[in-house]
Amino acid sequence: MSVCDWCGQEMTGKVGCTVPGYMIGGQMFGRLRNEDQLPGCHDCAAPYGTLHHPGCDSETCPRCGGQAISCGCDDPPEDDPDDAEAQRIAEEYADAAADQARTEVEEAHDRAGEQWQEAAYQPAPPDPYSGGVS
Length: 134
Ligand SMILES: [Zn+2]
Ligand SMILES: [Zn+2]
Ligand SMILES: [Zn+2]
Description:
This protein has about 130 residues and is mainly α. The protein has 2 domains: about 1-75, no CATH class; about 80-120. It has 1 helix and 2 strands, in the order E-E-H. A two-stranded antiparallel ribbon has the order 1-2. A hairpin with a 2-residue loop joins strand 1 (about 20-25) and strand 2. It is elongated, with a radius of gyration of 33 Å. The N and C termini lie far apart (about 90 Å). The structure holds zinc ion (3 copies). One zinc ion binds near residues 34, 43, 52 and 56.
């Protein structure tokens, strides 16, 4: 049996969590109750109408209504917009450089292919052993 980090109770299927809310981005949100019918939550085993134990994959995020463990609301705030812009520009340059490099490689490849074709279509040199044998 696992024990909930927040309420310290064993997730036995008889108890819901006793922690009523938590902070997201500096704001307190009341948690949403388990709406799974009996026998309770498939993940944390909280009975119907009680609170999920944190980390449960059935817990609904009280901020965005998404899945609490994956919605990202409690992730650290986004970076400074200036940094994001600088980052975007840096990525654009990196992309352009990569495109440029790719184009050069493709052109070199094409040239090599043309040269190879020219070589392949050149008339074969006269064969000194042919002609006199038959
Ligand atoms: Zn709990
Ligand atoms: Zn649950
Ligand atoms: Zn959310």
